[in-house]
Design brief:
With about 475 residues, the chain is of the alpha/beta class. The chain folds into three domains: about 55 residues, no CATH class; about 325 residues, Aldolase class I (TIM Barrel, Alpha-Beta Barrel); about 55 residues, no CATH class. It is about 50% helix and about 10% strand. It contains 20 helices and nine strands. Strands 1, 2, 3, 4, 5, 6, 7, 8 and 9 form a nine-stranded parallel sheet that branches. Strand 1, helix 6 and strand 2 form a beta-alpha-beta unit. Helix 2 packs across helix 12 and helix 5 crosses helix 13. It is globular and about 60 Å long. Bound molecules: S-adenosylmethionine. The site of S-adenosylmethionine (SAM) has 22 residues, from strand 2.
Length: about 475
Amino acid sequence: MYNPKSLKAEEFIDHEEVLASLAYGEAHKDDIPLIDSILEKAKLRKGLSHRDAAVLMACEIPEKVQEFYALAHQIKLDFYGNRIVMFAPLYLSNYCVNGCVYCPYHHQNKHIPRVKLTQEQVRDEVIALQDMGHKRLAIECGEDPVNNPIEYVLDCIKTIYSIKHKNGAIRRVNVNIAATTVENYRKLHEAGIGTYILFQETYHKESYEKLHPVGPKHNYAYHTEAMDRAMEGGIDDVGLGVLFGLELYRYEFVALLMHAEHLEAVHGVGPHTISVPRIKRADDIDPSAFDNGIDDDTFAKICALIRICVPYTGMIISTRESEAVRSRVIGLGVSQISGGSRTSVGGYAGYTPDERPHDTEQFDVSDQRSLDEVVCWLMEIGYIPSFCTACYREGRTGDRFMSLCKSGQIQNCCHPNALMTLKEFLVDYASDKTRRIGEKMIEDELKTIPNEKARAICAERIKLIEQGQRDFRF
Ligand code: SAM
């Protein structure tokens, strides 16, 4: 029944294959020669199959686990260097017809206000986000064909891209909306979106159906096959994710990799990103009501193994996680983080950095620092915050992005782009302290661009940014 090339959810995420892989992992979790041979394979940086991954996930031998961590760290450095891409979520509307039992936007929740931003309000939110320094957004929306039809989402994207406030600009809009039709994905593609992100929530069909008792999201196959429709609609970059805490994490981990293998087998390109959200407290949601919560060590192991198993896939972590957890997993493979996030509808405009509206919040935010604080902290712990959006604007999406990764040209391309966009942030938005640390970092990091010509061009452009020019890219 298992067939990674099938377009049917229950065949490419075959339940029996997940169970067989977990049993294989359990049977070999202490098999050191096998574990060593899998680690040798992983060192080739071409990824691992879900079966091999299941063995590493089951393995609890401390020295071996330390080896995974060291390898994950090294792969992260080889492919992503010390850059961390920054983004923020923008909640458009919390109207929703679904009944997701873990989400406060579920339609039975009658005591939260339902809010949908007008285009004027979208404009205010975007100006507030630009004034923080953001260049990349992920738009979020409940599923409601009457209140949030695709035309509304498209209008919002158009508004977001149109706003140029002072030196600000949103240069990449990623979209996290419910599974939809090929025709609607085509419209999103034509609107110039970056990544289409859809969390699977859980790959376990029976649990999925219980956790989504009513509404269009109840349909497991329609949801699980969404990425195939998105790719058919022309979207090259898709982002997977599981909401950890709903089901057994080992099941989710294996199935997530099977999903990535399926996309590679059918479309020739794997997921652009993988997100690793964990359930958080929210209005009428108590995370302890779910039996499968994972501790921070398990979470770190998942991040490290994702890095090893799909080395070319970006990994995203949100402000659901605390500063301590974020700093740990950044070293193990996370390549993109949000900063200064508000998870309520209309949460940015009109509030001071310390004010935080809670009434329409989708979940509690653990990392409540401002974007400037997150940027400063990243640099203090040795990472370059990058506001780069060059790849998709240069047409480097899907397999073209993967080729850039594989060719090793990232250091001559992404690295200078990170420095130039960081420079924009420092000049336009940073506090004195952040600026001081950032200028020193740029000076040091410029020297590490291997190609002499790229290094000279980058240095020249950084001077031009100081003089007022913007939006350079390799
Ligand atoms: N409504 C769309 C959908 O169904 O895919 C858009 C996504 S929703 C705005 C973003 C994501 O937030 C969901 O896919 C879910 O994984 C996550 N989420 C929902 N409730 C959450 C909670 N209590 N804690 C953490 N994440 C949550």
